[in-house]
UniProtKB/TrEMBL annotation:
The lineage of its organism: Bacteria, Pseudomonadati, Bacteroidota, Flavobacteriia, Flavobacteriales. It comes from Flavobacterium fructosi. This is tRNA pseudouridine synthase C. Pfam families: PseudoU_synth_2 (PF00849). Its EC number is 5.4.99.26. Keywords: Isomerase, tRNA processing. Residues 11-160 form the Pseudouridine synthase RsuA/RluA-like domain. Responsible for synthesis of pseudouridine from uracil-65 in transfer RNAs. PANTHER family: MITOCHONDRIAL RNA PSEUDOURIDINE SYNTHASE, TRNA PSEUDOURIDINE SYNTHASE C. It catalyses: uridine(65) in tRNA = pseudouridine(65) in tRNA.
Amino acid sequence: MLEILYQDEYIIAINKPSGLLVHKSFYARDAKVYAIQELRNQIGGQHVYPVHRLDRKTSGVLLFALYKEVLKIMNDRFATREVEKKYLAILRGWSPEELTIDYDLTNDDGIIQNAITYFHRLQTTEIELEFNNKPTSRYCLVEAIPETGRMHQLRKHFKHIFHPILGSRPHGCNKQNKLWLENFELKGMMLHAHQLIFNHPITNEQLILNAKINKEFSRVGTVLNLDLNTYE
């Protein structure tokens, strides 16, 4: 059963598990289960329309409209940046305390698109894990707020500043991912959409939807001695 964070007669939001596709995708033709069909079945067969997207490996708040007219309203608000998305990510190394990454990205059609991400560092940690002939490894927890919504934007942006998201494949650090797979059996990606802030498409009331981190994110936080109580 999907965890429903909010539901009324116009919209519904879930805490999407990591590994679940939003809908059928050419890039993941092996998948047989999708958030759209699972949610539709869970609420009695009513059609649901995803307002935005989350990568397969990204967990967290995912919003659906229950009618096409509501979908259009919310699509317009996303397009005009009236919706704020906040993500938690665990990065390799100690990132700057805060930074706005303004770095254009190229989509699958070869079109260059402007992409902007603001983030601030929440915590830093260092553990005894040998890497690159050093006895320890450094990591940090950040909150990222993308101003644009390009495909794999956060993964690409953090790799661009040499602080890739732990577990990201591609757009990550293959050596670190292998190290964590061998030492901690990590197969997931440490990226979670923990908060969505927007005005209701009909009542215009502000909604703040929060999604708790999943067990894998929490487990990695324990390994790294991060304090994730606020998000669990």
